[in-house]
Amino acid sequence: MTGKPGAATGGLYLHILVLAIVIVCELIGIQRLSIGLGTVIFLPILYAFALGILLNPAIFKASAKFLSKDAVKLSGAMITVAIMPFIAKFGTTVGPQISKIIEAGPALVLQELGNLGTILVAFPVAVFLLKMGREAVGATYSIDREPNLALIADKYGLNSPEGAGAMGVYATGTLIGTFVFAIMPPLVHGLGIFDVRALAMSCGVGSGSMLAACTGGLVAVVPDQKDIILALAAASNILTYATGLYVGMFVALPLTEWLYNKARPSERKTA
Amino acid sequence: MANQTNTTANLADDLPLNAEDERKIDVVKHSGLLLIACAIGLIANWVGTGTSPLVALPGMAVLYVACIIGLGFARFVPFYLPSVAWVSLIAILITIPGVPGAAWVSEQVEHLNFLALATPALAYGGLALTASEFAIARRSGWKIVIVAICVMIGTYMGSVVVADLFLRLGQ
């Protein structure tokens, strides 16, 4: 490890590397793959994330020569900074569409409760099919992004089974969430059952990269509805910032706990 | 098992759990980092859409100012809202028809492709993953991967079904 870069040079290398990744990914551009059900969409953000992982010092040892631990840490701070112009751009799509957003108001607000669908789908799979223990509570009560993870940390501690479940879904979501959210909405749209506005307003689940992937995929298959797709997705994402933690705290987590106790009465906590 | 959960807790040390504590952030330092992010965003937009950075610059400048104001609000307003929520609200406000300058702002940001602006964040995201995050994902095993996919499908489809239902009822 001779010639270990200082913090400043490490930072410089980081930004240059990101710039290089970004240029390559934007040159490749959006790619479409038609399959029977619909179209699978590949977005530059997917390549960017995948390339970032491939060049991550924890995976690709040669990168450690250029990227110090501090540079990796800076990279973590840069995610929240770099997503801000994107979020701002997203917000600017709402203003011009504000009357259409208000028109869709009830659906927009109530779909936040639809996020409880995770319990409906994932809880039975985890508890009955995969025979998971209390990890299932932390894993399935929400999409386990940062605020949801913080709630679990606060309530059970991260060194509990619930904490392990939540962290597992968090880490997996970080690794594959962008891919799932880029590929799923265009396929669901291909079914031809749902209003594209419903597909758009469900994109706001509280993670910037999932939001980008979801809307990017939808806009690629329904380009003429771009303005309304962006506006509804942005509006629902803001609603999730505001309501997500509370829905989790007062509805989703108690409900998941209750279901778990019903499903496994013998394990009921005596504490 | 006890051992295992202990190490899991240690692994959790560098997860972004405290990311929501924005009361202590240094707005000045962040404005510098944001400048770098915006510059890379302009280049992403250039390569991705062919729009020259000079044409897109006014729009990006507006977004930059909105972000700085949002960061300042998250830092100084007495009740807590994450900076991204403030940024969104400011961006919405300055583009509502009738607000002075709204039409100009909308016209300028139109030169920026929303997806190109997200590309730098994802590149940083891939590079920022720590050995612990890979370790947690590996340790959690295939069951968690299946559950995580079900969680994402359930969260999305639950919203889609409810939204679709109420959109139909509203017609």
Automatic annotation (TrEMBL), chain A:
The keyword Cytoplasm does not apply. The chain crosses the membrane at residues 12-30, 36-59, 71-88, 108-130, 164-184, 196-221, 228-253. It holds the Pfam family DUF3100. The keyword Aminoacyl-tRNA synthetase does not apply. InterPro entries: DUF3100. It comes from the Bacteria. Keywords: Membrane, Transmembrane, Transmembrane helix. This is DUF3100 domain-containing protein.
TrEMBL record, chain B:
This is Uncharacterized protein. The keyword Membrane applies. The chain crosses the membrane at residues 32-49, 55-77, 84-105, 111-132, 144-167. It comes from the Bacteria. Keywords: Membrane, Transmembrane, Transmembrane helix. It comes from Ensifer oleiphilus.
